[in-house]
Amino acid sequence: MGIAAKFQRGDVLVAACPSREVLQHITSRWGVLVLIALESGTLRFGELRRKVNGVSERMLVQTLQCLEGDGLVNRIALEVVPPHVEYSLTPLGREAAEKVRLLTDWIEGNIPRLLKAKAAP
Q1: pTM
Q2: Which CATH class is domain 3-119?
Q3: Do 55 and 30 touch, CB atoms closer than 8 A?
Q4: Helix axes 29-38 and 57-69, enclosed angle (nearest 10)
Q5: Cα dihedral sign for 39, 41, 46, 51?
Q6: How far is CA 30 from CA 11, 15, 46, 92, in A?
Q7: Per-residue pLDDT at 10
Q8: pLDDT digits over 47-92, tens only?
């Protein structure tokens, strides 16, 4: 059986599974935040950087490149003066954003409990 056939669905617990790389891109700190920020719609690079507070330009570029490579983000370079680039979620990206949104909503809703557990000896 070839590797492509073996990973028709994917198995994240197998070291050679390509789903691990995608998982890393989606669940990185900036990957999660970019997906959530783009849920609201198309954003220019500067708008996205302001919305994802604290991300450096370099990290945002890297994150966007990874997510674009995974088919989760669309990048459109507009030939206007001055030139600018817009980013949006693909249909696959919208699905991924829904999933990470569930996790982030749970974290935000449980932050008092999480902080209390973290502070416990």
Answers
A1: 0.87
A2: mainly alpha
A3: yes
A4: 80
A5: negative
A6: 24, 23, 15, 18
A7: 80
A8: 999 999 999 999 999 999 999 999 999 999 998 888 889 999 999 9
